[in-house]
Design a protein that fits this description.
The protein is of the alpha/beta class and 313 residues long. The protein has a domain at 68-256 and 293-304: Rossmann fold. Helix content is 28%, strand content 26%. It is built from nine helices and 15 strands. It has helices at residues 59-65, 88-105, 120-127, 139-149, 183-193, 210-215, 233-242, 261-271, 273-279; strands at 3-5, 17-19, 31-37, 40-45, 51-54, 110-114, 131-136, 154-156, 168-174, 194-205, 229-230, 245-251, 257-260, 289-292, 297-304. The strands form four sheets. Strands 8-7-6-9-10-15-12 form a seven-stranded mixed beta sheet, with helices on both faces. A four-stranded antiparallel beta sheet has the order 3-4-5-11, with no helix packed on it. It has a two-stranded antiparallel sheet with strand order 1-2. Helix 2 crosses helix 3 (120-127) and helix 8 packs antiparallel against helix 9. Bound molecules: zinc ion. Residues 23, 25-26, 28, 45, 47-48, 50 line the site of zinc ion (ZN).
Length: 313
Amino acid sequence: MARQTTGPLPYLRDELPLEDVHCCMCGTVEYDVVSSAPPFTVARCCGCEFVYVTPRVPESHLHLVYAWDYYESDHAGDYGYDGYLEDGALHVRTFAKKADFVERHKKSGRVLEIGSAGGFFLNEMKRRGFEVEGVEISEKAAQFSRDHLGLTNIHCGRLEDVTLEGPFDVIAMWDVIEHVSDPVAILRHLRSLIARDGILVVQTQNIDSFVAKLLGQRWHHFKHVEHIYHFSPKTFASTLGKCDFQIAELTARGAGKYISGKFFIDRMRRFSRTVHFCLTPFRFLDKMSFYVNLRDEFIVAAIPTAQKGEDKQ
Ligand SMILES: [Zn+2]
């Protein structure tokens, strides 16, 4: 596998190595180009239709992407979030909707969140009477959830590096699975931590959605350093199947988020500088918020299926 080093990308502080990859699901080398933004190509595997980005930051360096300015990015259209931790009031409302989704499947018990960020989801679940525990790679975000939300069970590090004691009744990953270098390994790990009647809840973006096709390479989820995979309902179902999970529910409802007027206007710059310029007089919208669901993401609730040597559930 060829390795190359690129000069610094405008939105990252330092130079990062990049490596060419092929489909991690079936090993096929051939692909069709979905989108291209040199040095990155969004590739659809000719063998299994899985969509991935090549080249990409190697697994050994991936944690550095989240160690810098991820939650206070100056280039949030391409990398990270702009003031994520300060937008707490918006996240509280967004995650209340997601908690409603979870509660439809599980009313009580232990919740584990992978990629717990500032802790807003876990705090909402705690408020609803669940026991909560989180894993977060960014020390800054983990510390925020401890200091500002009083969450004590937050492990800082990668999932494979922290010690967790299952079983968990709910395991949640909101907009995380597209960031990890080996989704199958992560899901298999989670399969070992989930209760037999537990529920795995995953949200990710949908490469086959109408909006993704309409916007093409300007799709806001094309953030090539961090979104290294793009699932569809079909490829995600297949990935879950490899990991002894099956889908109980898949929906785009509740997959939106509350955004500020400022966020909306800033993101319009990516879509069109002209549209962004025309919106400049409307800066008074900055302080307003509204719920947006473009239906280009989906939420899956998955249940564990019996593994070899395990009793039928
Ligand atoms: Zn493939």
